[in-house]
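Researcher: Please translate sequence to structure tokens.
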Amino acid sequence: MGLVVVRPSKGRHCAECRRGPLPMHAVEAGLPVCLDCADLGHLVFLPRGDAALTRRAREAGSLHAVVVRRNRRRRRWERQGLLVEEQALAAAEAACLADAEARARRRARDAERRAAADAHATAGLAAEIRRLFPGCPAERAAEIAAHASVRGSGRVGRTAAGRSLDEGAVTAAVRASVRHLDTPYDAMLMAGVERRAARSQVAATIDAVLAAWRAGATGTAGTTGTAGHAARTGRPTTEAPADDSRRGPSG
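Model: Translation complete:
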């Protein structure tokens, strides 16, 4: 790591000149030494966060030091930035400004590629849902795929199994959608029902919906009408019998 400078969590005093408390100090023979006494006082602090600026400032100068701070909760040292030569920092800032437009265009192109890749993956997942569950309405399959594939969400569609369209992963995404949208599961959680107990109580409804969708039936929970209402509320509904008097004579 080379030269290391510490940002202490509490004030320290220089072991040589006795100045303090010190915002930063080097360590020599296990003792804190201020930057002036350590011959590092001419350096300026560059916080972490801009990788390109940090790299260029480090390369442009002949001397730099890594600034660290102890994270007591995580029990580890964490980088805070660099101490670099002032002229090296100025040169790095000028170089970064010179190619800022090119880097912005590159970021835009990268974002477009990621968006296209995400759209392709989402479409593939929706198609696989329709293949495994032909009774699932196309709009619903698209909604499930879009929800499961949000970048950075950690949902099924972002896992390796989901991206490879593993049947178990695809089914898990469909089950999750049915659980939240077509059963009273969310209302049960809000009412204080324990998660495992709630899942157990709605499992039969989910299995019935998935079985119907696998068989190609579309008139199940998840669509409009009394079946969907019953699944969401947990209350049975009745339908009025058809009025045969309105039918014409049978041929």
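Researcher: Any highlights?
Model: DSSP finds nine helices and six strands in the chain.
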